[in-house]
Task: inverse folding
């Protein structure tokens, strides 16, 4: 069952009876086998109505044909405004368009792929600022070139660095990720990364909340983790007596000779 749009008001009687005309218009753009039954007529305005027909075209379940016709006041000649194929509430339609930069996920880049950032990316700020307040006015090409030259002369190495907003976004992403305190691995861990000898602290403002795991046997090796994260590979973890492997039995010396056998 297709839920069709409704309009207030009573449709014009002359236009409402023009079902055959509406059907002929649909057949100008569709094959006879793609046109189903008449589903109804709805008033769009004064002397303006729309006829709906079921669509039975393969691959279009839940869609319907829509034909809008009108006529002049006291006129007998009918005019076709448009004929379109529209999706109903249960129709299969393409998902909403998402820009490429929003669709890409960590790990999607292949060797040779490039993902440039915008010049006004809020996550980055110039390492060396030119002028009194360059953030109020975007830098032109010459100013950007000057920033690069000054950065090279001062040995800064980077034209831009993380802004406060960029740091906050990274911290939130890491905290909510698999290296955060809410990860299943962390909830079952015997202790936190804060006291683990394999933790390498980050520098700067992030050092109070994050570090990098350096345990080659851990799941998070080489990844950023929160200080309240944890796993079973903590440097100070100890096995209980019942969890320790059983000792190997003493070797048995075989004293039998070939003659005795």
Result:
């Amino acid at each position: 069952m297709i839920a069709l749009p409704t309009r207030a008001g009573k449709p014009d009687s002359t236009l409402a009876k023009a079902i055959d005309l509406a059907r002929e218009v649909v057949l100008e753009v569709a094959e006879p086998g793609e046109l189903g039954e008449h589903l109804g007529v709805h008033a769009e305005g004064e002397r303006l109505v729309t006829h709906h027909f079921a669509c039975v075209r393969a691959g279009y379940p839940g869609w319907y044909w829509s034909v809008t016709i009108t006529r002049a006041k006291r006129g007998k000649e009918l005019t076709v405004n448009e004929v379109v194929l529209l999706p109903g509430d249960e129709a299969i339609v393409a998902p909403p368009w998402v820009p490429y930069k929003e669709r890409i996920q960590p790990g999607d880049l292949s060797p040779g792929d490039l993902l440039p950032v915008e010049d006004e990316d809020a996550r980055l700020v110039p390492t060396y600022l030119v002028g009194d307040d360059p953030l109020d006015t975007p830098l032109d090409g010459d100013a950007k070139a000057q920033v690069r030259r000054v950065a090279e002369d001062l040995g800064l190495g980077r034209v831009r660095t993380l802004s406060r907003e960029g740091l906050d976004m990274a911290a939130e992403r890491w905290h909510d990720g698999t290296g955060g305190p809410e990860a299943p691995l962390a909830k079952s861990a015997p202790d936190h990364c804060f006291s683990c000898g394999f933790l390498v602290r980050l520098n700067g403002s992030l050092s109070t909340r994050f570090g990098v795991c350096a345990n080659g046997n851990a799941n998070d090796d080489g990844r950023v983790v929160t200080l309240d994260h944890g796993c079973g590979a903590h440097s100070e973890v100890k096995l209980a007596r019942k969890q320790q492997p059983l000792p190997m039995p003493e070797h048995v010396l075989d004293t039998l000779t070939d003659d005795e056998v």
Q: What stands out?
A: The longest strand covers residues 35-45. The two ends are 88 Å apart (CA to CA). Confidence is low (pLDDT under 50) at residues 130-136. Strands lie at 35-45, 48-55, 63-71, 78-87, 124-126, 160-162, 199-201, 210-213, 224-226.
